[in-house]
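thought: fold this chain, then report.
action: predict
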Amino acid sequence: MAMKLKLLELTDDKARILFEGEGNTYVNALAAELINDPGVDVAHHKQAFQFSDPELAVTTVGGRPPLLAITDAAKRLSGYAGELLQQMEALETA
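observation:
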């Protein structure tokens, strides 16, 4: 099932994205990964109510486009998941 995203705000240095129908687990991980990017000033998620859709807000510095920062962070998370999967499969065959 594909994630459904809704762009709430986009400027040269800020993006706000709503993750429709998602929990906050992935958005938390994405925000934490974004903080590792030196071009990201602020990355946080908020959820108005326990069962509402989470929102990710990202502010960048130094001309870093916020959507590119989010895309790069998502790719890094995907890579980490792939590495974990390979290690788990290796454990199963050991």
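thought: worth noting. The longest strand covers residues 4-10.
final: tokens above.
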